[in-house]
Write a structure and sequence with these properties.
Number of domains of chain C: 2
Order of helices and strands of chain C: EEHEEHEHEHEEHEEEEEHEEEEEHEEEHH
Number of helices of chain C: 9
Structural class of chain A: alpha/beta
CATH architecture of the largest domain in chain C: 3-Layer(bba) Sandwich
Shape of chain A: globular
Distance between the termini of chain A: 15 Å
Helix content of chain C: 25-40%
CATH topology of the largest domain in chain A: FAD/NAD(P)-binding domain
CATH topology of the largest domain in chain C: FAD/NAD(P)-binding domain
Largest sheet of chain A: 5 strands, parallel
Chains: A alpha/beta, B mainly beta, C alpha/beta
CATH superfamily of the largest domain in chain A: FAD/NAD(P)-binding domain
CATH class of the largest domain in chain A: Alpha Beta
Strand content of chain C: 25-35%
Distance between the termini of chain C: 17 Å
CATH superfamily of the largest domain in chain C: FAD/NAD(P)-binding domain
Helix content of chain A: 25-40%
Oligomer: heterotrimer
Number of helices of chain A: 13
Chain lengths: 473, 102, 382
């Protein structure tokens, strides 16, 4: 086992991580980059397998941006140590992380940490959502764009947000039988996003290409509709759709059944906050965006000295936003390490700061239009599974909440968040249940995270490890 | 099992080397670079595990939800969506029963 | 001081772990107005991080009668309180050396003499019980106690909380008790972080923090602290029935299928529950040697808790020398979970009728010697 002593670590190689690494590399900072995938790109710029000989046959236009970043990264690579197929599983002292790569454990000691853990999808469950054949929108999209396979049977998509339109276009372009696309937001609110897109016209070609794909294939696209339930035995076979009122709640009597083979669901993105919590970054529930996010300043600094959180992992803003964030964080970290006067940094980084400010208008519009309302959460009936791993249903959680178990930690005896995914799936959903039940805001606290923050094979610990001096043994 | 409509491999892609993997003893085709999840869905296999009578399959496809846990080459709890196929890879669906009613 | 809110009660229980919760519950059920104070939520420290073992074998001779009575009480808890996943699957100790086998042979005879059903097993008998044991390891035998078992600490904490509320116990969580107040050798109350308690009786069951409180009134008792860590696996189909302990640690399987792998506690000076890399390494290198199937499982969770150890490994269950009305229940040395129900019953008797229904003289404070001196000092304090 080795100990890698480095000046900066960047965790996550999506747009934010790549951008931060580029700036650190350019400034000559000895930096380690850690990512779980074989190649850089994160999720939005996920690179198809290197074994595929013509990957861009399936990749959307977005990939060009990803490729440009990858090229820029390769050019700044001289002071960069890239660890692919690697995950940070724990940290046992300030300034040190423990990494799992290819069955071995590696300790990394650093001065600055830039966390770019990206986003995960926000899911509002309904009865039957855990049946095989139901995927998240992003998961389904990635199957097509980075693995090159498309559903052979009938596909139905439901949920809300840009990912719904994007996935629909990708599914349609792949030639799959798309039975319908059901957007929870009403048409007028959806169209009001158009104003936001004007602030970032670079999105227009992409938006148009999605729309024209759907129009040309005559895809059924409905607004203010959602999933009532999904049913099947060993896999999903039928979807029941329902019209939604202005508050997002189902309108009884409007139900419609559709036979399906594959369903994609999702309500946008939320920050994936795992490593940030492990290292002690203060994380708060954002009431307007309905998710937990680490508290950061304009330089992406978290509450923990030496730790930055940049990109969607700090607050969802999309790929371009994330890149701007990564540049800013990388620059600040590099300047701090090179003992440059950070007060001068505003001038130097103004291009990225201006970009971020322009994007902010669009990002705010996105959240205003697509953040679910309380009514959307009434899709969660008492028999709906909330914790996928352990099968905990909403009825049990609500009963416990009524008995005074009013925060996530108190709910743990139900087995909530006790499965292998460690709460990634259910923490957000359970928090929203607490919120719509009227729990006091101070009870909406994220769970305390401890090592391991990813499931770890016990065999990885079989070899003796060499600890970083100063860590508790 | 085969009545599940398979995912189709898109024709325009020039995939990596063709190989075979085994799921519950049954050989299915795969291509280098694909994940186990991809190969399974392409063979019409949607269930990865059953946990206390609930069937679960691929959901997030990015290694976060742990719904696609399978036993791969004898190691338990491995995510199918994060595991690359390799020749002769042996995969078993997981069935976790609890000790008694909760 | 004047900003503290005054609370009057018949008895104050300091510490909301298994010990304090049972004492408070039984006192309230005897009709006393009880306050239960903990610096955090109930069951958040050692009790909530426990391996959950309810074990009689391999205890100090003086503790065994209490443990056996405790198991009788445990058997009634599900009906009284609710689901706690109490499972009497037995406890099994593995012998990997001749010396251990010989020592345990003597111990088993002594325990049987005290009325415990416990067996000395040969190596073949151990392997027949636990087929997943590695074939190649040297195994001399073991001991098996069929009535031992384990429970789910999180569920117990929850059902106890509800029972306490139903019994009318006033629960103050996030209340740090700083000191006790006495007048002329009698307890008059206690000072917390938010409340000022006026009560004629109190019991200090504050685990590792018990000593600090006693030091503020001139008492001390020698204890050391250890940090014990547990690694939890993904849920697996039933594979182990018993609570198994061996030279490197212990393991048990929870109802939902997760295996809990516990390592021996490491000495600590400061009271902290930071996990260590070495606990993962120890389990990773030591456990699969004995249980090879563990090489192929995932660890999904881990945590640490603090245990409080006396020199002889048994608790202090006593009145504070020279102070009428103040009791102490601390120093359970890593195996207090099982004893919770019986300590609760005994203290409720002691604090109302004046004496417990079982002999607890072995657990006296005076065995640490300083008791008398401290008593004189306390009697002079106001």
């Amino acid at each position: 086992m080795t100990t890698l002593r480095i000046q900066a670590v960047v965790v996550g190689m999506g747009p934010a991580g790549m951008a931060a690494a580029i700036e650190l590399g350019r400034a000559g900072v000895r930096t380690a980059l850690i990512d779980q995938a074989p190649l850089p790109g994160g999720q939005v710029y996920r690179h198809p397998p290197k074994e595929f000989r013509n990957p861009h046959a399936i990749a959307p236009s977005r990939h060009r941006t990803g490729d440009l970043l990858r090229q820029e990264l390769a050019q700044s690579a001289t002071s960069l140590t890239i660890l692919n197929d690697a995950v940070v599983w724990g940290g046992f002292a300030p300034g040190a992380l423990s990494v799992h790569q290819a069955g071995r454990i590696l300790e990394v000691a650093y001065e600055k940490l830039v966390i770019c853990e990206g986003a995960q999808e926000r899911i509002i469950p309904c009865p039957g959502w855990t049946l095989p054949g139901v995927l998240s929108l992003g998961g389904l999209q990635k199957m097509i764009t980075s693995q090159g396979i498309a559903p052979g049977g009938r596909v139905l998509l439901a949920g809300s947000g840009p990912l719904l339109v994007g996935t629909a276009a990708v599914v349609a372009r792949a030639g799959a039988d798309l039975a319908g696309v059901y957007e929870a937001v009403p048409f007028t609110r959806f169209m009001s996003l158009g104003i936001g897109v004007m602030a970032w016209p670079q999105l227009l070609p992409e938006s148009f290409s999605y729309m024209s794909e759907l129009v040309s294939k005559r895809v059924k696209f409905r607004f203010a509709w959602g999933l009532r339930s999904l049913s099947g035995d060993d896999r999903v076979r039928e979807a029941t759709l329902v019209a939604l009122d202005n508050a997002g709640a189902p309108i009884p009597g409007s139900e419609r059944n559709v036979p399906v083979d594959v369903v994609g669901i999702g309500f946008g993105l939320q920050p994936h906050v795992r490593l940030a919590r492990l290292v002690g970054c203060r994380t708060e529930y954002d009431f307007s965006r309905r998710y937990f996010a680490p508290v950061t300043d304009n330089w992406c600094r978290s509450s923990q000295p030496g730790v930055y959180v940049a990109g969607d992992g700090a607050g969802v803003g999309g790929a371009d936003w994330s890149e701007a964030q990564g540049r800013i964080a990388g620059l600040h970290a590099a300047w701090s390490l090179n003992r440059r006067d950070c007060d001068q940094l505003s001038g130097f980084s103004s291009e990225w700061v201006r970009l971020r400010r322009r994007l902010q208008f669009y990002v705010s519009a996105l959240h205003r239009v697509f953040t679910p309302k309380d009514g959307h959460y009434s899709a969660i009936t008492p028999d709906t599974v909330v914790c996928r791993c352990e099968g905990v249903r909403a009825a049990e959680l609500m009963a416990r909440m009524n008995m005074g178990e009013q925060d996530l930690t108190a709910l743990k005896p139900t087995r909530l968040a006790m499965g292998p995914c460690q709460g990634r799936g259910c923490e957000g959903i359970a928090t929203e249940l607490l919120r719509v039940q009227g729990t006091p805001p101070e009870n909406l606290k994220a769970l305390h995270l401890r090592p391991p923050i990813v499931p770890m094979p016990l065999s990885a610990f079989a070899q003796p490890t060499e600890p970083v001096p100063g860590t508790p043994t | 099992m085969k009545e599940t409509p398979e995912f189709k491999r898109l024709g325009k892609i020039d995939r990596g080397k063709s190989l075979q993997i085994k799921v519950d003893g049954e050989a299915i085709p795969a291509f280098a670079g694909e994940t186990v999840a991809t190969a399974m869905l392409s063979a019409g296999l949607v269930r990865c595990q059953t946990h206390a009578d609930r069937p679960l399959g691929v959901f997030c496809n990015i290694g976060q939800c742990c719904s696609c846990l399978m036993t791969i080459n004898g190691v338990s709890g491995v995510r199918a969506c994060q595991t690359q196929v390799s020749p002769g890879l042996e995969i078993q669906t997981r069935n976790v029963q609890k000790r008694g009613p909760r | 001081m004047s900003s503290l809110q005054r609370v009057d009660c018949d008895a104050l229980v300091v510490g909301g772990g298994i010990t304090g919760c049972f004492i408070a519950l039984r006192l309230a059920q005897k009709g006393l107005k009880v306050c239960l104070a903990d610096k955090g939520p109930l069951f958040r420290e050692a009790s909530g991080r426990s391996g959950g073992g309810v074990r009689q074998q391999f205890r100090n001779k003086a503790e065994l009668p209490l443990a056996m009575e405790a198991v009788r009480l445990w058997q009634g808890l599900t009906e009284e309180l609710g689901d706690i996943e109490y499972h009497q699957g037995g406890s099994l100790r593995l012998h990997r050396t001749e010396q251990l086998h010989a020592e345990d042979k003597i111990r088993v005879e002594r325990e049987r003499g005290q009325g415990l059903e416990v067996q000395l097993l040969t190596a073949q008998q151990v392997r027949a019980r636990v087929p997943v044991l590695a074939e190649g390891i040297k195994l001399m035998g073991g001991t098996f106690c069929p009535s031992d078992g384990n429970a789910n600490p999180l569920l117990l904490g929850r059902v106890l909380t509800h029972a306490l509320i139903r019994a009318g116990v006033v629960i103050h969580s996030t209340e740090e008790i700083k000191t006790f107040e006495t007048v002329g050798g009698r307890l008059t109350g206690a000072v917390g972080s938010t409340h000022l308690y006026r009560c004629p009786k109190a019991v200090n069951a504050a685990g590792p923090w018990a000593r600090k409180i006693m030091q503020t009134i001139g008492f001390d008792f020698p204890v050391t602290f250890r940090k014990s860590q547990i690694l939890v696996t993904e849920p697996l189909s039933p594979i182990i029935q018993e609570f198994i302990s061996f030279d490197k640690g212990y393991l048990r399987q929870a109802k939902d299928g997760n295996l809990h792998l516990g390592v021996r506690g490491i000495p600590i000076a400061a009271l902290e529950t930071r996990q260590t890399m070495s606990s993962f390494q120890d389990v990773g290198s030591d456990f699969p040697e004995v249980f090879p199937f563990l090489s192929n499982v995932q660890i999904i969770r881990a945590f640490a808790g603090i245990t409080t150890w006396t020199g002889d490994g048994i608790p202090i269950l006593d009145t504070a020398p020279g102070i009428q009305g103040l009791w102490i229940a601390s120093g359970f040395s890593g195996h207090g979970f099982c004893l919770g129900p019986i300590v609760g019953q005994l203290f409720s008797e002691w604090m109302t009728a004046g004496h417990p229904s079982m002999d607890v003289s072995a657990f006296a404070w005076s065995r640490f010697g300083d008791g008398e001196k401290k008593a004189q000092h306390a009697a002079g304090a106001t």
